[in-house]
Write a structure and sequence with these properties.
About 5% of the residues lie in helices and about 30% in strands. By secondary structure, it is mainly beta.
């Protein structure tokens, strides 16, 4: 049956206090499901004392051997041998078997501490998991399910912990005309906390403020009188002096 399309059947718990006849019949069995007595493409399942339903895609029917959808009319289609169970006065809620997750649910990325997956709704009413990234310099907190300040997040061992803006996918180039990230954004990797020169732009007005190797602020030296540059050794803004820069 390798060529058959098998769908995962997920149960949607009903808010009903009345147990169904199906649940009573299958109370002593580990298999608590049955096909619809008049529609082989639909099945009922007893879950925690409540009845749920699911429907196979067009052209498929429910197999009586296992909880899966098989091609209608195939050698495995035993719809005519269906064991009929009469259900009456049972509250049934249709189940969309294409939905694979609950909208809003989030899962951490095992490889990158700034990445996570979020369940989002599709236009057709189904749901799917989509990869997301926290804004710089936030990281994903598994406990709260939110992106939080890097100081408030403890990443798992083995996870990549991005620190530089260019470690985040949002700042990476997606076209040949894009200016490389390391030219557009500064880095604090390997630099101490506090004011530091913009690596690659030494002796210019540009400088950065670092905290735990993250760029907290990028700024420029400003003066209404004389032009200033950031001194990479003194780590402060000084009056522009070509002799100091060259010699």
């Amino acid at each position: 049956m390798e060529s058959f399309l098998v769908f995962a059947l997920v149960a949607l718990i009903l808010v009903s206090a009345v147990q169904s006849e199906l649940c009573e019949i299958t109370a002593g069995s580990s298999i608590k499901w049955s096909r619809h007595p008049d529609d082989c493409s639909t099945a009922y399942m007893c879950l925690l004392g409540k009845v749920v339903s699911y429907t196979c895609p067009e052209g498929y029917v429910v197999s009586s051997d296992d909880v899966s959808c098989i091609p209608a009319g195939s050698q495995f289609d035993d719809c005519t041998e269906l064991e009929r169970i009469i259900l009456h006065d049972v509250e049934i809620t249709p189940l969309n078997i294409a939905s694979s997750c609950k909208e809003g649910n989030k899962l951490q990325d095992e490889a990158n501490c700034a990445m996570y997956s979020e369940c989002v709704a599709l236009p057709d009413g189904n749901t799917t998991m989509v990869s997301q990234e926290c804004k710089y310099p936030f990281l994903f907190n598994v406990k709260s399910g939110k992106c939080e300040h890097f100081k408030d997040v403890k990443c798992d061992p083995g996870q990549i912990v991005p620190k530089s803006p260019c470690d985040y996918k949002a700042f990476q180039c997606s076209s040949a005309q894009c200016i490389p990230c390391n030219i557009r954004f500064p880095t604090c990797t390997g630099l101490p906390d506090g004011l530091n020169p913009w690596v690659g732009r030494e002796w210019t007005p540009d400088y950065v403020t670092c905290e735990e190797e993250r760029v907290i602020l990028q700024d420029q030296c400003k003066s209404e009188k004389e032009p200033q540059v950031f001194h990479p050794n003194e780590k402060t803004c000084v009056v522009y002096d070509v002799k100091k820069i060259v010699g």
